[in-house]
Design a protein that fits this description.
Strand order of the largest sheet: 1-2
Helix content: 55-70%
Number of helices: 7
Shape: globular
Length: 185
Amino acid sequence: TFFHDIYMTHYRAEESGFDHSLLGFLKTLLAFGLHRNPQPVLDKLVYFYLPFSAVAGLMLYFLRIRRMPWINQLLLLSIAAIYLTPFSGDGTLMHLYLGFALCCFVAIDAWRRGIEVPGLRVIMYCFAYLFAVESFVLSHGYRFEGQAKCVVLGILLVCALRYPLGESVADAPLDLSHPDTAKIH
């Protein structure tokens, strides 16, 4: 109840710079659009946002993510866990570290083979911005780096959905020569 009443349904200007969830972005837009009393609209927003984010996450998974290469799957599930939650502070960005490390390995491999991996450059730019200590996007005394990071997370999500970063799990051959040790190569 405390989390719901304080972080989910209220716009807190002093903390909006830390929240990079999609809900935080929407709350900021509503708070600036309804300067006087955004509270009734924010209450309704949360009421609709939670089922929407659950359905959107499930649809993304079953329609696209599960068919992607495993690196994309890990990256996309990490992004969704940060992006679709009702509040996502700066500490949640550490969940992207493993995806970043794997993308670094993809970049090193591509460099060694002399190839360009489509979308990887934009993905790495997104990581660079997200992992900056604080970007301090300020306007009229308000902090907007949470909203800026939300936009960058959205770009990262779209890139990871659009550009495969390896072999698809569905395309990998299945070794059935030994029934007890069948595994994907």
